[in-house]
Every structure is written in structure tokens, then in C-alpha cells.
Amino acid sequence: MTDQTLLAPASALAPAPTKKVFVKTYGCQMNVYDSDRMTDALAKDGYVATDNAEDADLVLLNTCHIREKAAEKVYSALGRLRDLKKRKAGEGREMMIGVAGCVAQAEGDEILRRAPAVDLVIGPQTYHRLPEALKRVGRGERVLETDYAIEDKFEHLPAPDKAKTRARGVTAFLTVQEGCDKFCTFCVVPYTRGSEVSRPMAQIVAEAEKLVSAGVREITLLGQNVNAWHGTVTTGGEGLGALLQRLSQIEGLARLRYTTSHPRDMDDSLIEAHRTLPALMPYLHLPVQSGSDRILKAMNRRHTAAEYVALVERIRRAQPDLALSGDFIVGFPGETDADFEDTLSLVRSIGYAQAFSFKYSTRPGTPGADLKDQVPEDVKAKRLETLQALLLEQQRAFNESCIGRTIDLLLEKPGRMPGQLIGRSPWLQSVNVDAKGVEIGDIIRVRITAAGPNSLFADVVDD
Ligand code: SAH
Ligand code: SF4
Ligand code: F3S
């Protein structure tokens, strides 16, 4: 001990008092990943995560702007938080409120204007500046941090320690690419996440290795257009296919996935990876949005329905076991009954294992918002109902087709009943199994015995 520490006041030697942060996540998987990274960035300043806003010193809303409803949720949550902040202030407890994510990026000024209780607005490109921004809030400023940062945020965002990674589970997300240059005419993402940026390979591999050394068995690579990832891979090749090949060499990493892909970026090497890499799960989320060429053109998707079908056929030739998932929008401006019929027939010809479908939501600032021929709400609702019934039927059929199959199951968490565990199938289904002498993170052989619409049941197979 030096004289200096002996002379230091007691308070300087005591550990920093624990502060609590409550993060509420809306939207896509990238927001889930970002929320964890923000929590990790705050850990250095003595913040621990809480799942209760009531005892939080800081509440962060990580928001989504994709549809009107998603964005509206933020303002109603802020109304409730304003009341909580006021009540706590009356009891002498301070609570800061921060808004992050895509609504923060798109409507930062408006949030500060409409919600005076908000102390901080921070966009997705600047999360590494969060600790500094909070210091400014501490000095009494209201902070708006929505510039596109010039520095690489990922370089500056700290990684979690092993214990924290393990506590988050045996599956993990890893963002490899962010932003989008596609400008589909309905979509806000190019405006909220900025233009496409790929993380360098070495940074991705290092993060993946760290996750695996903490016990992660399955990694899902994330990007708004993950298959647009561009970079040179030192073990050979370029692009996402080569990156997957490199990651599959990490010992202990059993499974790889990636999402979300754009049909125009499914290149040969990525398709080949589905044939050659056992670690790459036979599951692909490949949104098509519509089955009508007219609408696809108006959406600026830059491919036809026939091209999509042909692409799926090629991928299925490489990986016959592939389960396909998709996104659909009904009621894009100008969509007629005949266009909608084309969507239904595309769905019938593909056969989806899972899908997400939405009513078109007009987003300010996107080209779609200015189009005439907006489709009436009741027509959208009817079409959505019809489409969802078909997609649900396909999902059931896919789940039922799994009955009798023997598969590898990655055990993820305890089930509801004693002795029961919940695992994940190669096709992302939740599977309930009774198993003894196994641990979370193990991959076991099971036979599927029954199927519900959302989960499967299985028995252990003794090899
Ligand atoms: N990058 C992905 C999609 C990201 S957004 C892709 O290109 O496929 C996720 C999904 O939200 C989209 O696939 C689309 O189906 C839906 N979506 C996006 N904007 C929408 C809007 N304005 N109205 C309704 N759904 C929308
Ligand atoms: Fe949005 Fe289209 Fe980009 Fe997907 S590809 S994020 S739908 S603009
Ligand atoms: Fe929503 Fe932003 Fe993700 S708008 S879907 S949170 S990229």
C-alpha cells in the first residue's frame, strides 16, 4: 500500500455504490443484443441489471420504429414512467429515464419535446457513449445523442464477463452487420440504423470465441441484412459463407444460425455452406413480403416471385432438410385482391415452417407513405386473417411432420415440471423432454413424440 492510498479518504476506498438499471427491449433480435451490450457498458460504472422499474436508478427503453404500433408503445410507456419518476422523487429517490433504439434515432427531438421526464435520448450508433452521456445527465443536462458516430462502436463496447454470459444462456446473438442500403419503400430501417456496416472478421471471431469459452453452444449471427456481410476471411473466401466456415472451426461451438437475410444477397458460397457445414442449422429466415411482382416492384425488393421460388429450390437442393421462415406484408399501397392471391399461391408453393405477417403500416419519411391507393384497414385486416390462417396451417403441418423423427436437441432451460427440460430443435422449435443425468448446454438425441402448434414433445433415445 502506498502512502497515498493510506491518506485517501475512506469514501475513495469503498466500492462504488451499486446502481440499478432496468432495460425494456422492444423490436427485433438486434435490440435484444444491443440491450445486453448497453447493460455491459454500464457495468463499469457500477450498474447491475434489475427486472423491476420500481427499484431502478435508470430506466432505458430500447425501442422499435418498424410499425406505427411499435412506436406508439414508447409514448405510453413513457407516460407510466413519468408518474413513477414523480412518485419516487416525492420519496427522495432519483430515477433517470433514457430512450434508446430506433424511435430514439428517428424521433429524438420529438421525444424530448413530448416527454419532459426523459433525460436522455441515444441512437443505436452511439451506445458506446452511454456512460459519458449519463455523466452529462448527472450534471443536469438533457442529452440527445443521435449522430452517426465516426468511431467503431463495437470496438468501444465492453464484452460481458464469463459468468454474465453463461447466465444469459447457452444460445447467444452476435451482431456482424448493421444498417441497410436496400431502401424498400415501406421500411424505416435504412433511416434508423443507417447505411450498411460490416464488423471486421477478427472482431467477430474474438467475440464468438469469448462466448463459447463461457459455455455458449449456439450463436445466431445478426444483421438487418446479415447475408450482405462483406469482409475477407483469413482462412479463405469472402462474405457470410466464408465467415460461417471460419466460425464453425471454433471448438465447442455446436450450432450456427444467421438472420435476417435478403433474397438478393444469397450468394453461391452461402448456399454451399448449407450443404457443407454440419454446424449450420437447416433453418433460414428469408422474407419475401409479397408474391405479386407488381407489388414487389413497388416495394423496391428488386426480385420477382419466380426468382424467389427458384432461389429457395436451389437452397433446398443444397440442404434438403431446410425449414423456411418468412415475413409478409399485406395491404401495401395498390395491392389488389389478385396481388394478394399471388401471395397466397407463393406461400402454398413454398411451404413455410414459420412466418411473421403484418398489415402494412405507413411510416413517415418512407416513399410508401406518399403513395396513393392506400388499402383500407378492414381490407388489410381480412387479408391478414386469411394469410395467417394459411401460415398457421403450414406451421402445424411442419411440426406434425417432425413426429417420429430422431433429432439432436440442444438443452436450453428447465421445463415447468420437475425433471423436464426445454431444448431447441435444429428448426428452432421448442421441445419438451424428460431427461436425467444431463445438463443445460448438452446436445442429446431425442425422438419427437407429439406436436402442438408452438412446441414439440420428445423422448430420450438411448444410443
Ligand atoms: N431486413 C429484413 C426485415 C427487417 S424488418 C428484410 O429485408 O427482410 C422486419 C419485417 O417487418 C419486414 O420483413 C417486414 O415484413 C416488416 N415491416 C417492415 N416495415 C413494415 C411496415 N411499414 N409495415 C408493416 N410491416 C413492416
Ligand atoms: Fe428494411 Fe428492406 Fe432493408 Fe429489410 S432490406 S431492413 S425490409 S429496407
Ligand atoms: Fe425495430 Fe429497429 Fe429492429 S425499427 S425491427 S428495432 S432495427
From TrEMBL:
PANTHER family per UniProt: CDK5 REGULATORY SUBUNIT-ASSOCIATED PROTEIN 1 (PTHR43020), MITOCHONDRIAL TRNA METHYLTHIOTRANSFERASE CDK5RAP1 (PTHR43020:SF2)
Identification of the protein by name: tRNA-2-methylthio-N(6)-dimethylallyladenosine synthase
rRNA-binding keyword on record: no
Organism phylogeny: Bacteria, Pseudomonadati, Pseudomonadota, Alphaproteobacteria, Hyphomicrobiales
Ranges where the TRAM domain occurs: 400-462
Transmembrane segment boundaries: none
Binding site residues for [4Fe-4S] cluster 2: C180, C184, C187
The organism of origin for this protein: Rhizobium quercicola
Complex formation: Monomer.
GO cellular component, one term: cytosol
Keywords noted in UniProt: 4Fe-4S, Cytoplasm, Iron, Iron-sulfur, Metal-binding, S-adenosyl-L-methionine, Transferase, tRNA processing
Function: Catalyzes the methylthiolation of N6-(dimethylallyl)adenosine (i(6)A), leading to the formation of 2-methylthio-N6-(dimethylallyl)adenosine (ms(2)i(6)A) at position 37 in tRNAs that read codons beginning with uridine.
One Gene Ontology molecular-function label: tRNA-2-methylthio-N(6)-dimethylallyladenosine(37) synthase activity
Listed PROSITE patterns: MTTASE_N, MTTASE_RADICAL, RADICAL_SAM, TRAM
Compartment annotation: Cytoplasm
InterPro entries: Elp3/MiaA/NifB-like_rSAM, Methylthiotransferase, Methylthiotransferase_CS, Methylthiotransferase_N, Methylthiotransferase_N_sf, MiaB_methiolase, rSAM, rSAM_horseshoe
Cofactor note: Binds 2 [4Fe-4S] clusters. One cluster is coordinated with 3 cysteines and an exchangeable S-adenosyl-L-methionine.
Primary location recorded for the protein, binned into one broad class: cytoplasm
Top-tier EC class: transferase
Cofactor: [4Fe-4S] cluster
Domain MTTase N-terminal: 19-139
Name of one Pfam family that matches: UPF0004
